[in-house]
Amino acid sequence: MEFFDNIFVIAAQWIRDTLATLGFTSIWIEMSMGVVYLVCILGICTLAALFYVLYERKLAGYIQYRPGPNRLGPHGWFQTVADAIKLLTKEDVVPANADKAIHLLAPLFIFVPTVLALAVIPFGKGMAALDLNLGIFYLIAVTSLSTIPIFMAGWGSNNKYSLLGSMRAVAQMVSYEVPLVFSLLGVVMIAQTLQLQGIVEAQSKIWFIFLQPLGFIIYIIAAIAETNRAPFDLPEGESELTAGVYTEYSGMKWALFFLAEYCNLFIVSAVGTTMFLGGWHGPFLPGWAWFLIKTHLLFSFFIWVRWTFPRIRVDQLMSFGWKVLVPAALANLFLTGIGIYIFNNGLGW
Amino acid sequence: MKTETITLNLGPQHPSTHGVLHVVIELDGETCVGSKTNIGYLHRGIEKLAEGKTYTQVIPYTDRLDYLAGISNNLTYVQTVEKLMGIEVPERAEYIRVILAELMRIASHMVGIGIYIMDLGAVTAVFYPFIQREKVLDLLSLVTGARMTFNYMRIGGVAQDLPEEFFPALEEFLAQFPKAIEEYHTLIDENEIFLARTKNIGVISAEKAMSYGLTGPNLRASGVNYDLRKVRPYSIYDRFDFDVPLGTNGDCFDRYLVRIQEVMESYKIIKQAYKEIPEGPVMAKVPRVIKPPVGDVYHQTENPKGILGCYVVSDGSDKPYRVHFRRPSFNNISIYDEIFIGHKVADIVAILASFDIVLGEIDA
Q1: CA–CA separation, A240 vs A234, rounded Å?
Q2: Is B196's CB within 8 Å of A316's CB?
Q3: Range A78-94 burial, b when 16+ CB lie within 10 A, else e
Q4: Residue B127 is nearest to which of A66, A164, A231, comparing CB atoms?
């Protein structure tokens, strides 16, 4: 049990020991470990995206009374591979009047915040590539960068639909950043730390979803908006803006945006698990398994929401964000503060 | 600060223009300040084609007007020619026509509702109503052998009698239908986002609706009680007991509500018609070559999308001298340019979809 719990930590230690016995100095060991971590993160990123693309299609199929992909491989599980091959072999179209450099760089840059964010996620006890003591602050900082590649995509495509979509994206992601941060602050106040490992440790007795129910709800809503998923998928807004910011993207460039969407969703699910659902805590199974199960459930919830609700309108989105979510998040912070004060001064309990 | 409006081509290639409608909108930010609707991308010249065909050969072309309601279009055309020739249609044929036309109305409204909510962003909403449409299409293909282009009505009756399996299948369909509609009500009516997206959007007053010549559910959503099946009953609609659902505000939500309520009225009609259907022939005695007397006639029926009118001029030969269709969607979209103004892009799509237009009919 103990072994399985720490299997990845032990593996990392084994690599370190092997490198040391081979006579590398400590700086070289740290640098090689950096490469190992990066490869692991990219692996998680790719695997998560490949798995969830198909999983979402399957779940959507179930919700919509249809089988979903079921031709290639057992129950259609190789469908994503076939799709990826198709997209790779497609012609790479760049619109004539597009800003070529920006148009090309946008789908690459979209992965930067994703990979950076995954670096601090604690997948299990001691299982974070970087255990920053400013973890949550770093996470918020890097994830808010993902606005830029989306705006680059919209601007560089030189298409009116793309431009409208990217303007929506910026307005939406900047606005929903605020309640998102405030909802996480409540947790930080209780845990008394910004370090993600510490926040999970603080939940060993009670998960923060029970102490911060309002914060959790606000986080979920803001997270859906941050990842541009229905009912907040305005930047893409298929029925209005054809494909919004992605209108002029085809082939692998489009696929990169598509994969990044799933990676981002995986990250917000993982952060939700870390902050509210007790991270790796859980009986019987190894910690990392609990973490993945919780993340998976949260991810499934996001998919369920996407295939249930109609899209909200752009002005309703803004007024909901600023008039409902932000005040609610502030009220949550205020109540949390009072609660902590009462708890610390031991009024009766 | 100097600002500019942008011109956005909504269509003809666009996921939610219901085919190939082309709307050029002038946008100030996301708000529409000007709009121009272009049509004609699906023009096949059905009216001109009809002049080169015999009267019976025109029937399959009517299937392709409003391709979501082929049976209803058939009915309009054959009734027009029957009116011109003064043919009495046998009782049983009339009942079959009513049952199938109302089934067609259910199928058409199910598409209308499903696609409408899909255009609001809820993709799943298209699948639930389509289950019912699928069941209707199964019933219709049992009778006619086709799912979309039925070519079932004939001048003087219908092509063939109902097959034996039809009534058990119809019973099965009717048994589960009200429950399914009830489910849609619970899924859609109270949805907060759906209400926010449709209430008070694209409001059309009763006067304006009438002055633009709107018909069908779009007119009744504005509160005008005008249903040809009640006002000027054709076929045998005067024998059935049903209500005409009316809206109050004339907004997008009412247009949805009227449709889903109308479906239940169609259900009532089918239930009555199926109990009363008499035995007998399904085809009147008509000459093999149809040659109506010289003259012209106009006839209209209440189709799922609105009033479909048909004008036939005969020169005494076996081919019509002129056929004209008054297509409901064509008249209905004339109000678009006016009500789009002041709405957001997303609302334009909502209004467009709430009219339940079919481009095959608009461009003919």
Answers
A1: 9
A2: yes
A3: ebbeebbeebeeeeeeb
A4: A66
Q: Which of B152, B28, B49 has its CA nearest to residue B99? A: B152
Say if the Cβ atoms of A63 and B128 lie within 8 Å.
no
Cβ separation B196–A242 shorter than 8 A: no
Closest chain B CA to residue A247? B14
- pLDDT computed for residue B298 by the predictor: 92
**How far, in Å, CA of A343 to CA of A222, rounded?**
29
For residue B344, list its beta bridge partners. Answer: B31
Residues in CB range of B53: below 8 A, 6 or more apart: B61, B319, B320
Residue of B nearest to A60 (CA): B124
The pTM assigned to this predicted structure is 0.85
pLDDT value, residue B313: 92
Q: How many CA atoms lie within 13 A of A259 on its CB side?
A: 28
Q: Does B28 touch chain A (CB under 8 A)?
A: no
Residue A128 backbone phi and psi in degrees, to 5: -125, 140
Coil, helix or strand at residue B276 = helix
A174-205 residue pLDDT tens: 888 889 888 888 888 888 888 888 888 888 88
Provide the 8-state DSSP code for A321: I
Identify any residues that bridge with B302 across adjacent strands, giving them in sequence order.
B307
Q: Which residues of chain B fall below pLDDT 70?
A: none
Residues in chain A, pLDDT under 70? 1-2, 4, 347-349
- Residue A1 has a pLDDT of 61
* Options 1.20.950.20, 1.10.150.650, 1.10.645.10, 1.10.1760.20; CATH of B45-328: 1.10.645.10
CB of B76 within 8 A of CB of B300?
yes
Quick check: B15 and A242 CB within 8 A? yes
Question: What pLDDT score does B29 carry?
Answer: 79
pLDDT of residue B311: 92
**Domain extents in chain B:** 45-328
Sign of the dihedral through C-alpha B182, B187, B192, B196? negative
The answer to whether the bond into A122 is cis (omega within 30° of 0) is: no
- Rounded distance between C-alpha atoms, residue B133 and residue A104, angstroms: 44
Residues 6+ apart with CB under 8 A from A265: A52, A227, A229, A299, A302
Of B76, B113, B48, B105, whose CA–CA distance to B257 is shortest?
B113
Query: CA A86 to CA A71: how far, in whole Å?
Result: 16
Angular region, B181: left φ>0, alpha ψ -120 to 50, beta rest? alpha
Residue found by looking up tokens 């959507």 in the block? A60
* DSSP notation for A264-301: HHHHHHHHHHHHHS-TT--SSS-HHHHHHHHHHHHHHH
